[in-house]
Design a protein that fits this description.
Layout: E1 6-8, H1 9-20, E2 27-29, H2 42-54, E3 64-66, E4 76-78, H3 86-93, E5 100-102, E6 121-126, H4 139-143, E7 148-157, E8 160-170, H5 176-187, H6 190-201, H7 225-248, E9 253-258, E10 273-274, E11 282-292, E12 295-304, E13 309-317, E14 327-330, E15 337-344, E16 347-354, E17 359-367, E18 371-380, E19 385-392, E20 395-401, E21 414-419, E22 428-429, E23 449-451, E24 454-461, E25 470-479, E26 484-492, E27 499-507, E28 512-518
Parallel strand pairs: 2-4, 5-6
Antiparallel strand pairs: 1-3, 6-7, 7-8, 9-10, 9-28, 11-12, 12-13, 13-14, 15-16, 16-17, 17-18, 19-20, 20-21, 21-22, 23-24, 24-25, 25-26, 27-28
Helix pairs in contact: 1-5, 1-6, 2-7
Amino acid sequence: MDDIANVPAWYYQTIKEVEQRGHDIYFIVLQGTSHKNAKTSALYRLFRKFEDRWFRSEYDASKLISIEDLTKNKTFYPTNGVSLSASELNELKNLPLDILYAIDAAISGTGPISEVARYGLWYIRFGFGKYAIYNLPAFWEVMDDKPVTGSYLLIYKNGKTRIAYQGTTRTVPHSVRNNFNSIAWKSSSYLPFRLDALGKKRDLFLDSNPTIDLPVLARSKGPGNLKMLWLFLKNGGGYLRYKLTNRFNKDQFTILFSFTKFNLDNVRNIEFIPVALPSNDVFWADPFVVEREGIHYIFFEEMVYSKSKAHISFFTIDQNGQVRSPSIVLDQPYHLSYPFVFEYEGVFYMVPETASNRTVELYRATKFPDQWEFVMNLINDVVLMDVTLHFDKGKWWLFANSHNHPFVSTNDQLFLYYSDELFSLNWVSHPQNPIATHAENCRPAGRIFKENNKLYRPAQNNASQQYGYGLKINEIEVLDENSYKEKEVFSITPDIFGMKACHQLDFSSSIVVIDGIVKKD
């Protein structure tokens, strides 16, 4: 077992990140034939060659890379084939193995391989739900026009399969190649995250992961020539319509409001009034409201298409519903959005999204509402989207979305940090990070609020080809330094408001604000 293996780039990224985090883990590569060498129809192979040329990307997750540079510390243990000989198994048994991480789901549960490591055999299976049985990763989700594509990190040990991690992301429409790149690069983060958790739980780790009864990976040859011809024409026609629609139809988010008291029982009955946009060159999104002396101050992201970036603006709404023209309150050379405005010890602060600058920036109002000064960076050198702060149980909690790779969506990995002080440079990463991993219920969509002594977190529902499709409301059941747990209790789809999309919610004592795409007559 001395041969140096070539592995796909997404798998190489997994190994590299594990080593960078300092985990002392042996790896084994069992390169099976579940899909790589499967016999497929001529038109299917032609389709894949066409996609390889048409959707060429510098972020090719399937590109083979030698892991020779990662074997120097002997944390990588390569082999080829779908099974091991008796001598190879004995050699592995003599190593102090915590886990084996395999590249090919086809080898899951084969023989005694899973028993040579204390925590079993770990591997990625592409596909989510019923799509987890196919051996054409990310293919059928595109062909079936499914809104999300997913994958699992599974553990096989003691005859049981357990879910160590599961996640979904928005399906990349009309491109199997790009869809696979998206879910593969996301999947490359699963093992490093769960090794962090393993290091903290140890003996409790296996039982903390739920079991799953997945069918054996299907050995399908893929669609035949006639089926593939139909799929190609259908997908190609959809791709052309997608391009034409994006070129000629510019959907613009705007802000809507309603003078009503918000609660979860009445939200479906609210009638919102849209605020007219000043031109076709802007959209308004991410509203946050502050109410003072009968005046409602609405802070929001104002995106200017011609500038390819956004700044933070505000307008006021008086008690009669009169909207004053917006004014810019914060502008930087980089993109700003999601102006999380809050009051602390009688002073107003703002944490706008500054992910493009790789910072989490805190600003203070020197003269509310239109004069703000920079205070400090709470976190440096990190991409965190839609930062949402919440003070509870004597601690500050910071929720934000991120991603592990430039090709991966920022909509479906939610992270949690905490600190004893607001003005801190030492925000602690929660041991369960990422605490949410599905596109339908992840990215922050407004401030955390209490109702009937229960804590709720709004989240974007991006399980749709339409970005910012809808909202989910989650009840936070557990929030402490060791555990986080939430459950979905409410879903808001845009059709109940007569819109195409709505992806943020905020309210004060007498007004509710959202953003959305209003349907055109």
